[in-house]
Specification:
Blueprint: E1 2-5, E2 15-22, E3 31-34, E4 41-52, E5 61-69, E6 76-79, E7 85-91, H1 96-100, H2 104-107, E8 111-113, H3 114-118, H4 120-131, H5 136-146
Antiparallel strand pairs: 1-2, 2-7, 3-6, 4-5, 4-6, 4-7, 5-8
């Protein structure tokens, strides 16, 4: 299941859209090519994200379960295995320095762990809070309140 919606009014100057997924068994594909959106994304997942350097890369690298996806000029390849849940936000242009405390150009074309941006304690608290809700809608609402 995937659901997305605009944020609450207080976040609208900073967040374009919020989204949540709930895992489904049996992915049909093992990898997914993700096209660039031009935006910065903040994502928390129940399992770490694995990305691949290219089609020949059989191992990939783990980038974490709480991350910032910087604006990209090119697609990237990721593991498409389903996770129990994920929740995220696509930021408005110019909002990265305000919400993340990091200039967008420092995040561009990369995945950066949210721990590196906000610190281990803050992200641990977020993980704990987002593990509690039992429905995707509640998880999305909790994530929105954390932002």
């Amino acid at each position: 299941m995937i659901a997305s919606r605009p944020p609450i009014p207080a976040l609208r100057p900073f967040v374009r859209v919020l989204w949540v997924t709930a895992g489904a068994p049996g992915a049909l594909v093992q990898r997914e090519r993700v096209l660039p959106t031009g935006g910065v994304h903040v994502v928390l997942r129940s399992a770490p994200l694995r990305v691949y350097a290219d089609d020949a890369d059989l191992v990939g690298r783990i980038v974490g379960d709480a991350l910032v996806g910087g604006a990209r000029a090119a697609p990237y390849l990721r593991d498409a295995a389903p996770v129990a849940w994920s929740v995220g936000a696509m930021l408005e242009p110019g909002a990265a320095p305000l919400l993340l405390g990091v200039p967008a150009h420092e995040l561009a074309d990369a995945h950066t762990t949210l721990d590196d941006v906000w610190g281990d304690a803050a992200v641990s608290a977020m993980r704990a809070r987002l593990a509690e809700p039992v429905t995707p809608e509640r998880r999305l609402a909790a994530f929105e309140q954390l932002l």
